[in-house]
Amino acid sequence: MLRTQVAIVGAGPAGLLLGQLLHKEGVDTLLLERRSADYVAARIRAGVLEPGTVDVLERAGVATRLHAEGLTHDGVEIGFRGLRHRVDLKALTGKAVTVYGQTEVTRDLMEARTRSGASSVYEAEDVALHDFAGPTPRITYRHQGEAHEVACDFIAGCDGFHGISRRSVPAAAMSVFERVYPFGWLGLLADVPPPWHELIYANSEHGFALASLRSPTRVRCYIQCSLEDRVEQWSDERFWTEFRRRIGGEISARVPSAPSIEKSIAPLRSFVAEPLRFGRLFLAGDAAHIVPPTGAKGLNLAVSDVFYLYEALRDFYGERSERALDEYSARALRRIWRAERFSWWMTRQLHRFPGDAFDERLQQTELEHLFESHAAQMAMAENYVGLPFEPFRGG
Ligand code: FAD
Ligand code: DHB
């Protein structure tokens, strides 16, 4: 039987980052991923990093390219009724966000793991978690047709929303909180210089649109779509026509119909599973929670979970103290729920919901208050740049 100190399930940003932080502390990890390395490296997802996320990536020693290629954004814009209102993140909070794709973060982490010599198994099939309620957890899996078993001190469940880790916990031991939204996001990536300088989140009468970017030559745009829609129904031309209609103002005249490199639909969901610890199994990132993408919190939240878990495991191996491990779940959940609240709020204010005229008036009132009130802008800005990480207070 193989042996490692921490077995990590899932090679998304959460699993890769945990592995890298632990490697720097001399802790041995084995990473088990269901997909191929090429598939993981090519996935297109989030694009905005909080300053706290950048700090953690620096600490992990994977921020060189991020600093060279990431774009610093001091503000974001909200479009409503044909006007654009800027929220000056820098003036309000002293902080800015960094535009740097999750694809790039993943690539930097994968390269660092290869350099570190730590073990990874891609295309691991039938990953199953055993005995994590006791002191000697095990994982079994198949790889290239052969059965394998690994013994470990701890299992980090970093395998995303559809992973096996959360589903391995008896239902009675877990509470689940969930909200599903009645629409999705259709995203399109294209190689064309963005005709906007900062992200624009637009609430239009035809639905939500987001103008984002990945680099000075690559745009990432989203529109709210029906849950019944299929990507094949959306030609590039149809996407751009709808996007222009929603983004409005003088920008719409400058949006070119560039051919897509990637196009996909994601449903929107809020979800939290509590607690995050079950004996020697710890959940982190999308394995434990989902936020709707409005507000760009998903990746950033995975990073703060991982940072807390890393600190706790470092204390365990360094000082033989379990206090931070005992605190991990409560500490992470406090920040998770704040990001859940903010993502729900952003989603609520910026999309078209079916039906209720009272809700529509409230939405309009909320946005007008945001545009006029320094205090409301401050509340949005401090959440958008990311609430501070909570220091470990010793349990
Ligand atoms: P993941 O990135 O999901 O990684 C989990 C990994 O575990 C995957 O590699 C998966 O293949 C692997 N895995 C799953 N099951 C198993 C198993 N049984 N055995 C082994 N490995 C397994 N956030 C934003 O802020 N903005 C966005 O625009 C945005 N777009 C998104 C679009 C999509 C389609 C999705 C799914 C998410 C999006 N997110 C977005 C959210 C953000 O990308 C996630 O919050 C982030 O990827 C979480 O990282 P993670 O490592 O926790 O999970
Ligand atoms: C992007 C995605 C988001 O969900 C968001 O709020 C901002 C930017 C993006 O993919 O660029």
List the helices and strands and how they pair.
Layout: E1 2-3, E2 6-9, H1 13-24, E3 29-32, H2 37-42, E4 48-49, H3 51-59, H4 64-69, E5 71-73, E6 76-80, E7 83-87, H5 89-93, E8 97-99, H6 102-116, E9 119-121, E10 125-130, E11 138-143, E12 146-151, E13 154-157, E14 175-190, E15 200-204, E16 207-215, E17 218-225, H7 236-247, H8 249-252, E18 260-274, E19 277-278, E20 281-283, E21 289-290, H9 298-319, H10 323-350, H11 357-372, H12 374-384
Parallel strand pairs: 1-12, 2-3, 2-13, 3-9, 6-15, 13-20
Antiparallel strand pairs: 4-8, 5-8, 6-7, 10-11, 11-12, 14-17, 14-18, 15-16, 16-17, 18-21, 19-20
The structure holds flavin-adenine dinucleotide and 3,4-dihydroxybenzoic acid (DHB).
What global shape is seen? globular
- The number of helical runs is 12
- Tell me about the largest β-sheet: 8 strands, mixed
Strand order of the largest sheet: 7-6-15-16-17-14-18-21
Low-confidence stretches: none
Number of strands: 21
Strand content is 25-35%
Bound small molecules, which ones? flavin-adenine dinucleotide, 3,4-dihydroxybenzoic acid
Estimated structural class: alpha/beta
| Average pLDDT number | 97
Q: How many angstroms does the end-to-end distance come to?
A: 35 Å
How large is the radius of gyration? 21 Å
Helical percentage: 25-40%
Structure in words:
The structure is a single chain. By secondary structure, the chain is of the alpha/beta class. Helix content is 37%, strand content 29%. The strands form four sheets. It has an eight-stranded mixed β-sheet. It has a six-stranded mixed β-sheet with strand order 9-3-2-13-20-19. α1 links the parallel β2 and β3. It is globular and about 65 Å long. The structure holds flavin-adenine dinucleotide and 3,4-dihydroxybenzoic acid. Flavin-adenine dinucleotide binds next to α1 and α9.
